[in-house]
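To: structure subgroup
Subject: Chain for Friday's discussion

All,

I'm putting the inputs and outputs inline so they're searchable in the archive.
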Amino acid sequence: MMNPIRNVPAEWSRQQTLWVGWPHLANEWQGTLAAARVEIAAFIRTAARFVSVRVACGSQQAYDTAAAALARYDGDVELVNVPSGDIWLRDTGPIIAQTPQTRMALCFGFNGWGGKFNMPGDKDTAKAIASHENIAPLPYDFVLEGGALEFDGHGRVMTTRQCLLNPNRGNNWSEQAAEAALKAAFGVTDIFWLDHGLDHDHTDGHIDNLARFIGPAHILCQSATGDDDPQAEILAKAEAVLRATGLRVDTIPSPGRIVTEDGEVLPASHMNFTLVNNHLILPVYDVAQGARAIERLQILCPDWQIIGLPAKAILRGGGSFHCMTREIPCPISFEME
């Protein structure tokens, strides 16, 4: 049941704005900064057909390069100077919740994914976005990243123990303490735990690379692709745990084994999609596998348009479309399920 006091709208709820990060820290991109900018610009042009896009530029250099990349595009795009380490707004931006009277921007502590990647500006991003959107910030003193949580808008949230209970976040949470914190902050009533996220994921297992809601009580996850899929065991275990919840669970094929030029395995996932106003923008790393995932998604989500876009260069930076975006939902009616 949805909490009558506070709710986080599902990502398929109507959105008024989509924030997208713009990369500018070359040392974070392993030589793929230029290619990542091409992919992100293509994403922005696509998303701006369906929603107002605000591009978070964490430096003057970021602003200038974004302006150049989008110079010939006349869609609904605004470049905004806000403090941000690089592009990962899913984790550093605010989570928008609502009460029957208002919206609020929940702003959490951030410690660089357990101290692994400390970038100047990231601790100020959430409040800066909230201020630009004229939504009152509500600060919390514990560390939490948006990519670690997946909401269905009806009182349910998914997460992983690997991330939320990790000592490197500094919360010193037991599972019970974490559940109490989530229920108090987000108004959720049902919390579904998976043990581990994808291998090679430096976020310590964010849920948005593993499983997503595509409807109330309707979970999407992945099945392994190929005998050499590096995530096969994790995907199978996650699916089994999710099916035991009694919720509806469907799968799409994973991207399979995606590696760098040097043979390094990347945590490629079709789960890292962005939803925007009845459109699902899917990260694609291999053309054939992307086509299979799109075909399956269109069957599962007939009311949405599924759009695949290249994302391998973005993945080299550590994430994909969902990781680099943060939606601002429209005010919506607040009803009990």
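Points worth raising on Friday:
The longest helix spans residues 33-47.
Residues 107 and 139 are 5 Å apart (CA to CA).

D.
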